[in-house]
Design a protein that fits this description.
single chain; alpha+beta; six-stranded mixed β-sheet; 22 strands; 23% helix; elongated
C-alpha cells in the first residue's frame, strides 16, 4: 500500500474529526503548503495564503515555490494539536487523540540522527538542561560527578539531539568477553507519550544496529521491550531479557566506594564493589538505586536454622521458634496463615488440608 503524504494524513484525520465536530470555513489564514518542520521534526511547518502573498508582494520571495531555507525562515512551525485547531473547532481534550495520531505519523517519517558518546562525554549528555524527557528520567540534569563511573565501564550512550535539545538517550553495554555484536540496550528515555516511545524504541534500536553493524538476524538484548508490547518484528529481532553477560567489570582498578557520587542504574543495579550485576548473589554488597548520588549497602541475611545465605524474597519469620529461616527450614500453614519451623509441623489431610503445628494436634 502506498504511503500517505502529510497532506493526505491531515485530510484523513480532519475527515474523522468532522464526523463529530464542525469544520471552519476556508480563509486566507488557513494553513497551506504543509510539511514536516525542517527545524523540529516533531512539528509541522506551513504558510497561509495571506503570508505567502505578502512575501511575494514585498519581493521577499520571487514565487510560490519555496526552498528548504525559505521554509525554515518564513513558514510557521507548530505542533500537530495547534495545527488541527486551525481547521476545526474542537476542545483540546477531544482533539488530543487525533493530534497523537498525527504526531506518530510525522515521527515515523523521520530518519533520526543518533550519536554515540563515550567516557566523560556521557556525563555531558546527562547534565544537559535543554531536553524534552520531562519527569521520566530521575538522572537528567544531575551534576557531572554522578556519572564518572561510566568512564570506567564498557558502555556507550546513544543520544538523539536536535538543535541542541536532547530528545532521547540510552546506554548500550558491551560484552568484552565475546564479540562486539553481543550488546545490551538499556532503557530508552524518550520524549512523548507511550505510543511515541514505542516508535522511538524501534527507530533507536534499528539505528544502533546500523551504527554497530549488527545484522537484523542477530538477536540482542533490550530493556523494557516486552512492557511496551513490541513484537519481535517491530523491534528488529530483539530479546526482551537480561543480557547474556551478567557481570560488567569496573575498569582501571576502580571500585564502587572509590567514587564520590554514583547514578541510579536501571539494569546493572547491584555490585560486589568491582563488578556491576543484574541480580544479587553471595558477594553483593551495594545496590545503585539512589537518585541522590549515593548507594544502598546490602547486609547479607542467613537462616537461623541451617546457616545458609538468604535474601529478602526467600526468608521467612517462624512464629513458633522466633527465627528467620530459609524456605527449606520453614513451612507455611495456610490454616493459621503463619510460617512454622519445619520440624514442628504435620500435614493434615481431609477437611483441613494444611500444615498444622504439632502443639495444636496434641491439644
Amino acid at each position: 500500500m502506498k504511503k500517505q503524504t502529510l497532506k493526505q494524513k491531515i485530510d484523513s484525520i480532519i475527515s474523522d474529526i468532522l464526523k463529530e465536530y464542525y469544520k471552519k470555513e476556508y480563509s486566507e489564514t488557513t494553513p497551506i503548503k504543509l510539511g514536516i518542520s525542517q527545524s523540529d521534526f516533531t512539528k509541522i511547518s506551513y504558510i497561509t495564503e495571506k503570508r505567502q502573498n505578502q512575501l511575494i508582494e514585498n519581493d521577499v520571495v520571487k514565487s510560490k515555490q519555496f526552498t528548504k531555507e525559505d521554509r525554515k525562515k518564513y513558514f510557521y512551525h507548530t505542533s500537530p494539536a495547534k495545527l488541527l485547531k486551525k481547521f476545526v473547532h474542537i476542545d483540546s481534550d477531544d482533539l488530543q487523540p487525533y493530534a497523537d495520531k498525527l504526531s506518530q505519523y510525522i515521527i515515523e517519517q523521520k530518519k533520526i540522527d543518533l550519536k554515540a558518546f563515550e567516557g566523560a562525554e556521557i556525563a555531558d549528555i546527562y547534565n544537559m538542561s535543554k531536553h524534552r524527557l520531562g519527569a521520566s528520567s530521575c538522572m537528567q540534569e544531575k551534576h557531572k560527578s554522578y556519572f564518572e563511573i561510566y568512564e570506567h565501564l564498557p558502555v556507550k550512550l546513544f543520544a538523539l539531539i536536535e538543535n541542541g535539545e536532547l530528545l532521547a538517550r540510552c546506554l548500550v553495554w558491551y560484552n568484552e568477553r565475546h564479540t562486539t555484536t553481543d550488546i545490551y540496550i538499556d532503557r530508552i528515555y524518550s520524549f512523548g507519550n507511550d505510543e511515541i516511545t514505542k516508535i522511538m524504541y524501534r527507530k533507536i534500536i534499528f539505528k544502533i544496529r546500523e551504527i554497530e553493524k549488527i545484522s537484523k538476524e542477530t538477536k540482542i538484548n533490550a530493556f523494557n521491550c516486552r512492557n511496551l508490547n513490541l513484537s519481535v518484528d517491530d523491534a528488529h529481532t530483539i530479546y526482551s531479557s537480561y543480557p547474556s553477560f551478567k557481570f560488567v567489570h569496573i575498569k582501571n582498578e576502580m571500585e564502587i566506594d572509590d567514587f564520590g557520587a554514583l547514578p541510579y542504574m536501571d539494569t546493572f543495579q547491584y555490585s560486589d564493589n568491582v563488578y556491576l550485576q543484574t541480580d544479587k548473589d553471595s558477594d553483593t554488597c551495594y545496590q545503585l538505586n539512589c537518585t541522590g548520588g549515593t548507594y544502598e549497602e546490602i547486609e547479607q541475611s542467613y537462616c537461623d536454622c541451617c546457616g545458609v545465605e538468604v535474601d529478602e524474597d526467600t526468608e521467612y519469620w517462624c512464629e513458633d521458634v522466633q527465627e528467620t529461616r530459609c524456605e527449606d527450614c520453614a513451612v507455611y500453614s495456610s490454616v493459621d496463615d503463619v510460617w512454622y519451623a519445619s520440624e514442628n509441623v504435620t500435614y493434615i489431610d481431609g477437611n483441613i488440608e494444611s500444615y498444622v503445628h504439632n502443639d495444636d494436634i496434641r491439644n
